[in-house]
């Protein structure tokens, strides 16, 4: 029995020394800044690198629309050249015979401007504009989807941080309660009512909770750093939730209501619909390869010497030409056949993918909805457990100090009460996470 008591005494002394040592090694931290979830969302949208990338992609697609519209404008090109020419030898009797030198204009130059205005090319320009508009619409939906994903990531970190603070509050409150209870046990020991082992067990439980408090503080610091990175704050910046969110005030709709919202607002479904439209446009563009091309062209030339008409004039001249050009790609009827079939297959694939996304969306909504209802039931069950554990602790505590229960029964009752409170917090946070995941799936986040 003596060795047993010495063993527990050394364990308690070691645990207390470890707590004091860790407390001395912890760096000084600033006071946490109180922030609401809305503030976290706002700063995350501004500082998120992922959102910045998707925004640049959206801006790039908008420039693609302007580039496609610019194809409706006439095309102009200018060219100029200057050259020196030698005399022109004429070999009247072959290469080895007599040579007659023919004088030419040694300095030659030419400047010109060409222009072309497309009138019709199978409506390809309009198809190109519509294609870029479809790409911009898809990029816009992806950007909204990224915003929703960042919000869900932020709320996950925010709730993780809230759970850490709520855990710490419960542990600190329980430590204070255990310290008061320990004083009563020690008083009874001094009176010779209880054994030394009762004191040692109470000390061990108290030491264990203090070590748990250190772990919780570290978890809070880690969760705070993750949010700091998300909102662009320094790593040493501590955040504290403005208020403890609970699932009690959440507005819950019916399953059918969430399905209707998901089919109308889901970013994946909007992206799929945009992909269908894009595939149809690209199919039309491929079919336009066999269309007539019609356009206006113009040319203005200033050159020296004049060799356009005979007899030639060894003087500068200028010439302007305006005309109508038409062409028809005959070979496209057999060269374009397989391209058109491939584009039609791609359009069919896009439609099937969209239908598949709708099926998956219904599964996701149903899963998230049932998990949320399950989490809410666990919240109610956890509240009942807290009530029962509280009453059980009251009864056991009274019976212990009336000498009709063991200290193990008392400590077990304390542990059960603390664990039931922690389980309630966990259930509430889980229900909130399930709710926001449901909002993300239905496009409401």
TrEMBL record:
| Domain of life assignment | Bacteria
What's one GO MF term for it? porin activity
Species in which this protein is naturally found:
Mucilaginibacter pineti
Against InterPro entries, the record matches this protein to: TolC-like
Keywords, sorted A to Z: Cell outer membrane, Membrane, Transmembrane, Transmembrane beta strand
This one is known as: Outer membrane protein TolC
Localisation per UniProt entry: Cell outer membrane
Q: What is its main location?
A: membrane
